[in-house]
Structures are given as C-alpha cells and as structure tokens.
Amino acid sequence: MNAQMKHPARAKDYGPLPLNGLRVLDFTIGGAGPFATKAMADYGAEVIKIESRTHPDFPRTMGPYAGGIKDPDRSGYFTNRNSGKLSLTLNLKKPEAIAIIKRLVPSCDVVTNNFRAGVLERLGVGYDTLSQLRHDLIYMAMPLQGSGGPQGTYSGVGHTLNVLSGLYGVTGYDDGVLVGPGTNYPDHSVNPGHGLVALMGALIHRRRTGLGQYIEVAQLESTMNLLGPSIVGYSMTRKNPRVMGNESEDFFPYGLFSCANDRWLAISIRQDEQWQALCRLAASEPFSRDASFAGNAGRLAGKARLKPMLMAWTRRHDAFELMKQLQENGVPAGVVQNARDLVEHDEQIAARENFVTVEHPVMGPVVYNGSPSRLSRTPARIACAPLLGEHTDYVLKNMLGMNDGEIAGLREAGVLE
C-alpha cells in the first residue's frame, strides 16, 4: 500500500505505528476475528472490513445501542471490536464484487476470515485462488473446529465453543448446576490472541524468506488451552476435576461472600496468619473465637458451619470498605466489579488511562478499551469504528482508481449493497 495515503478512519495523523504500511482485507465477523484485526488497526495497519447491508456483521444487530435506538451504526459491541477500520460493502454473490476483491488482493498483505470452512472457497476467494494474485500473501482462516475432521464444516459462535471446549464443564457449583463463564469468553481473549501471534509469526517469516502462507486457527483447539490444568490432570489421574463454583478444594475461606447493597467480595485465605487477621477484624463474631477454625484443615472440615457465619458477617458491611480493611491487614480480598466500577471508579485503571473516549459521528462520545499492550516508542492509537459502508467510495476510488460513473453503475447493479 501507499504508506503516505491518509487513513480516513483516523481523525488525525498519529505518526508512525508498528504496522503502518500493512494492508489487511478483513472478512471476519462476530467477536474473535474482528478483535484480532482490530488490534492490527490499533497498531497502524490499514484494515478493510468487507461488509454487507443484507447480511451485516451480526454484532451490528446486537446491543447495547447508543440511546436505545436499534441501528447498525449504534451498536456498542460492534464499535468496540472494530476500531480504526475501513468499511467496504459488497454483495459477494455478485461476480463484480468478487472481481473487486481480486483487484484489491495484490495490494493486500493479509486476508482474514472466520467463516465456516469452505465458504470463501465456494465464493472464489479462498487461499488457493488469492495466493495466485500475490505470491507472498498471508491468509488466516479461523474455522470453528478447523477445516478437517468429521465436524470441520460445522459452524458456531463463542457460546458454542464454551460448551465444546469443556469450559461449561468447569464453571458450575458443587450441586451439579452448570452456569458457564457468563460471556462468549473465547471471542474476547484466547482466540484473537492466538490468531495475532500466528499472523505476526507469518509476517516475520515472510520478511526473512519472501514467502507467504496459509494459517488455520481452529478456534476449538485454541479455546481448549483454557482447560490446560484440567486436561493434564485427567491425563495423569483419569479423573475429571470437581466442579466447585468459586471455592477451592485446598483452602477455606476461599470464594465469594455477599455484602450490603447486593455487592460481592472475594476472599481467599491460604495462610493461617491471614485467618487470624480476619478474626481480629471480626473480633465480636463467634467464629473468631472458635478454636476448631484456627487451622486450615479445621476450616475445611467445618466449612458447612463456618460459611454461613462468615456470610452473616460480610452482609453487614459495605463491600469496598470491608475490602480495604481486609487488604490493609494482609488478607487477600477484592470486590467483584461491574462495568460502572471499571469505567467510573477504579483508581488503578484510571491511573493507567486505559479507557479512551473517541467521538463517533452517530453515537457521540464512545468509551473504548485501550490496548493492554504498551509499546514505549509506538503506542497503539484507538480510532473510531466505521459506519456501515462508510469507506466504500474511498476504497474504490483511491485504491482501485474507479471513477464516479463506474461506482454509480456498481451501486445501481446491487454490487455495493
């Protein structure tokens, strides 16, 4: 790409970023794929997101919506996962749209998708085809379970992976009720992370050898890494881990305790000295004077009796105040935070200036997560996510040299949906 070309998604020139000069053609949808390419955009890559008005990226159809107005340009989920990208809308069922993709590919370093295995191949834009147009192309696919095997063509979302990977099997209570991790966790951490590592490795390899390559990130296999200790444990003992909710087999108190105003406090005591410190704070409580709880073994054995006594004590306290008192006395404790706590009250996050407010043309000021990776010389820059189809004309004119008449004809023919 022309490194001097101004990126229209950025409000100002941020100066050199580590991925400046890299162009990515991004077919990814949902969470995992877009999160990986978002990170590339945050570090300077020019990411062209291929979209469709008929079949929009499904986070555009999901809330929360700014102002409560359901609109593809007001989705907080989409906006958070697509900062700094360009949006090009194409109807990939039209041969003219496929021709546009093929004209773009020679200027692209990377192509990404997380469709079901075989989808883009059937459309004529798979790796075998596109790598003929650029010999050093890096092409990353992120199929749900990989492209081989008896379920290689199955589709799904992050919630599917929660189940298939075994995450649901370890997130529950000892009464047998499984509750899951509470979010499509694989979409927001492990899968985009593994995808980015693979892409950076392939780019380094290309710099050394001049060769591109095909990358396949099987999202199920990526997600299974979250269960590493459980899998290793089973391989050694042939026993599945016990489901224990927030508690521990080895220590007590260890878990979540309810406090005043429907807040929860995590307390994790691993040393008897920590228990003694807690008892000094709760000196008027019967459990603080019960010798049978002095050692960890006694607390574990008496958990059924001790837990409700502890809970009765914590419920009378403000969670944040009790957390502070416990921490000041050497007892590991932390409030279970919510989104408001993180954005408005957390002193550590505020001091780190993690959250970035960016002006959005439809939603107004939007709070984005900043990059958790801090590069001292070339820090990431968070720019606005695109409106649906916002950069279609820009891409066609500035990258492919089309004129207004050609673009109008494509639009009339339903190619630029």
Automatic annotation (TrEMBL):
UniProt-listed Gene3D superfamilies: Crotonobetainyl-coa:carnitine coa-transferase, domain 1 (3.40.50.10540), formyl-coa transferase, domain 3 (3.30.1540.10)
Transmembrane segments: none
Pfam families on file: CoA_transf_3
InterPro entries (UniProt xref): CoA-transferase_III_domain (IPR050483), CoA-Trfase_fam_III (IPR003673), CoA-Trfase_III_dom3_sf (IPR044855), CoA-Trfase_III_dom_1_sf (IPR023606)
Record carries keyword Transferase: yes
Alphabetized UniProt keyword annotations: Transferase
PANTHER family: SUCCINATE--HYDROXYMETHYLGLUTARATE COA-TRANSFERASE
UniProt name for this protein: CaiB/BaiF CoA-transferase family protein
Source organism: Pigmentiphaga soli
Lineage start: Bacteria, Pseudomonadati, Pseudomonadota, Betaproteobacteria, Burkholderiales
